[in-house]
Amino acid sequence: MLITQELYTYEIITKDQTALIQKAAECLARSFIGLDVSGKWVQEPMVGQLNISYEDFYHFTKDYLDSTIEQGYCAVALDINNNVVGALAGDTNAPEIIGEDIFEGSFSDMNVILRVLEDVDKRFMEDYKKRNGKEIKDGEFLHLFMLGVTAEHGRHEIIQQLGNSLLTKASSQGVKAVLGEATNPKSIRVMEKYHNMKKYEDIEGNYIVHKYSDNSKLNGIPANVADGTYILIKEL
User: Which InterPro entries does the annotation name (predicted)?
Assistant: First the structure.
């Protein structure tokens, strides 16, 4: 008799699950800063290009989760030992454009990433206003902000299940669409394949993209690794 056991369990975490929030932040930070997965180095290209430490990025991630966890859009994958091996965190806040550097000291390079995200977000917001004649409001979009997977096995399954749980919840709560900033081709492929998201085209039919080759701090990223940050979208 064959007994099959699921490798992972999934849940959306709540604000009183402080240990899980911490584990989710660790999983996300490790994934972005870089880790070895079955002999292959995986990391977010902008973080790889800039001078960002794990500790600083962990605190940034933990602060983000602490400030958005009540909205109920942080899903985690747990292994049989209750370790978080995958996390997808989002929020339903309207995009916010700060327009100035807010990180300092050893974390000042994070301002470069913030500017890239604000550039594509601002252009998306302007295009949305042209199309709809109004600003984006809180609660209209699920913004998928960070995805991290530290598991060696079943990584695609984890990505699919995490996304499904958040998209299903958003749809049931009347959220209009899901939105994300994809910073590399792998993220784009994953979002397209598993969640039917598409690169967003503005009213003139152009992708909204921040090209790394045009950014003096990021033009060292090889084009075959990543060419830019794109807005991806899916209507719910």
Answer: Acyl_CoA_acyltransferase
Amino acid 27 reads C
- The per-residue pLDDT for range 96-129, each reduced to its tens digit, is 999 999 999 999 999 999 999 999 999 999 999 9
For residue 231, what are the β-bridge partners? 181
- The DSSP element (H or E) to which 9 belongs, if any, is strand 9-12
Q: How far apart are CA 22 and CA 24, in angstroms?
A: 5
Angstrom CA distances, 178 to 88, 154, 173, 231, 235, stand at 13, 24, 12, 11, 6
Q: How far apart are CA 101 and CA 121, in angstroms?
A: 16
Helix, strand or coil, per DSSP, at residue 198: strand
Run of H or E including 148: strand 141-149
Distance CA 158, CA 189 (A): 15
Whether 38 has a pLDDT exceeding 90, the answer reads no
Cβ-contact 232, 183 below 8 angstroms: no
Separation CA 97–CA 114 (nearest Å): 9
Query: Domains of the chain by range and CATH?
Result: 9-235 (3.40.630.30)
Q: Which of 136, 137, 90, 98 is nearest to 114 (CA)?
A: 98
Residues 88 and 162: beta-carbon distance below 8 Å? yes
Per residue in 165-198, pLDDT (tens digit) is 999 999 999 999 999 999 999 999 999 999 999 9
By DSSP bridging, strand 209-211 and strand 198-199 are unpaired
In order of 73, 130, 193, 213, 221, the CA distances from 216 in angstroms are 34, 30, 32, 8, 10
